[in-house]
Amino acid sequence: MSLSLFIARKLYQNTDGGKRVSRPAVLIAMIGIAIGLIVMIITVAVVVGFKKEIRSKVTGFGSDIQITNLDAIRSYETHPIQINDSIAHSLYQYPELKHVQRYSTKPGIIKTDDAFQGVVLKGIGQEYNRDFYTSHLLEGIIPNFTDSTSTNQVVISKSIADKLKLKVGDKIFTYFIQDNVRVRPLVVKGIYQTNFSEYDNLFVLTDIYTVGRLNNWQKDQVSGVEIKLKDYALLEDITYQLAEDLDRKEDAYGGVYYVENIEELNPQIFEWLKLLDLNVWVILILMIGVAGFTMISGLLIIIIERTNMIGILKALGANNFTIRKVFLWFAVFLIGKGMLWGNAIGLCFYFIQHYFHIFKLDPASYYIDSVPVSLNLFYFLLINISTLIVSVLMLIGPSYLITKINPATSMRYE
User: Fold this and answer.
1) Closest to 72 measured CA to CA, from 117, 118, 105
2) Gap between the Cα atoms of 35 and 37, Å rounded
3) 226 and 306 share one domain
4) Mind listing the pLDDT tens digit for each residue in 72-118?
5) CA-to-CA dists, residue 184 to 121, 177, 348, angstroms
6) What domain range includes position 141?
7) Considering 225, 254, 283, which residue would you say is the last residue of a domain?
8) pLDDT of residue 413
């Protein structure tokens, strides 16, 4: 063990904490580190959790990548593309794809005796991954929709159910306008709620066979294909690859394939999420700065109160570098203790909020009903390491005060 580390440990282990002025200075410095770390952990956990929750809801409705008809861009009145077994098989040749599922849409109106609501009827087949809707199901069931028979059953959102005063088991009449008005009676089998109002107020689930019949399409024609990736980080690369292979190519019916990812389909949402990253960086820089300056003030007070000790060490032959390392090691011990408390309190908040959802949000404004939190191990370690390194680096400059202390006068200092 080096001399500097040995002396620093003895100073840190001193039970009376030094003189009366340095004791509160040390306490304030540790509290500053702890508070800074708590704020940083909570901020990153909330922002990462919020981005993860919003992205999961957006991709839950539309998956990661969509292949549609070029003529159907930004329109709910879709034009079909051909998706047969050979095309589906060719998509699965991409090793990065996790799941491929067809869907078809048809805009219409649900009318009851008291009210009506414009909706988009979304037809899904047996291969469709229902996990997203199942996780947000409030009442009833999600039927086993197929592409071979009409079930005449639907799953609606809670917001639509509330507006039209519907419940599970009710029969509804849907109206679709083409050359003439077509009426289709359907039965409500389930009610879901995602709190994502833009989609909750719009989509009604049914079987893809019914929607295909309403659109007068061939059996192998659908509105599009939704693709789930194994790794979301590859979104841009896979979108580019699929676009190179499929974009502007015609199917057997004259439909033109067009590839878009979820960030291109919802630019306003993902730009909003990107702005949150800037807020996080501002908070992290401010908190690390506050914690560092708190430690600087504490170190300066400790150095001044230990002037007599510094003079004795110099008289015994210790050089300035050795003595500076004593106080830097002492500061590391203080920072470590503050970080220990900060981590403990920050993680307590995370687990309490994660399991008990104490802090609530307005779903109409934030799309979720409670503050989401997500613990990312990489970010957690990065925050701790960065706090330690930056705090110590900020103390190197103030430690040069030791070089100005004269042994002859300092040993008489009280």
Assistant:
1) 105
2) 5
3) no
4) 775 656 789 999 888 888 898 899 999 999 999 999 999 888 888 99
5) 11, 11, 53
6) 80-254
7) 254
8) 52
Q: 110 near 174, Cβ under 8 Å?
A: yes
Pull the structure tokens for residue 139: 């009442």
Same domain? 318 vs 196: no
Is residue 261 in a domain? no
Q: Is residue 296 in some structural domain?
A: yes
The residues facing 120 across adjacent strands are: 107, 203
Query: Rounded CA gap, 257 and 279, in Å?
Result: 39
Give the end of a domain, one of 194, 226, 254. 254
Closest alpha carbon to 100 in 276, 255, 210, 229:
229
For residue 64, being part of any structural domain is answered with: no
Q: Is the confidence at residue 15, as pLDDT, over 50? A: no
Phi then psi dihedrals of residue 170, to 5 deg: -70, 150
The backbone torsions φ and ψ at residue 28, rounded to the nearest 5 degrees and listed phi first, read -65, -40
* pTM (predicted TM-score): 0.81
Question: How many domains, the chain?
Answer: 2
The predicted structure's pLDDT at residue 175? 92
Q: How far is CA 246 from the centre of its chain?
A: 31
Residue 312 shares a structural domain with residue 220 = no
User: Which tens digits make up the pLDDT trace of 171-215?
Assistant: 999 998 877 888 999 999 999 999 888 889 999 999 999 999 999
